[in-house]
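Key result, reporting period 2: structure in, sequence out.
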């Protein structure tokens, strides 16, 4: 389990509108919440 307050790893992805998103650009300016969930329509 990851400890509370652990710094998130650096990553870059596209957002829901297709714009590039780099985690280093957000660091220190905004809160960042990473949420992982099982894929839709997969058996549990």
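The corresponding designed sequence is given below.
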């Amino acid at each position: 389990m990851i400890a509370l307050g652990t710094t998130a790893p650096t990553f870059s992805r596209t957002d829901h509108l297709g714009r590039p998103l780099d985690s280093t650009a957000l660091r220190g300016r905004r809160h960042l919440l990473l949420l992982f969930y099982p894929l839709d329509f997969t058996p549990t």
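The two ends are 21 Å apart (CA to CA). Residues 16 and 22 are 13 Å apart (CA to CA). This case is discussed further under Risks and Mitigation.
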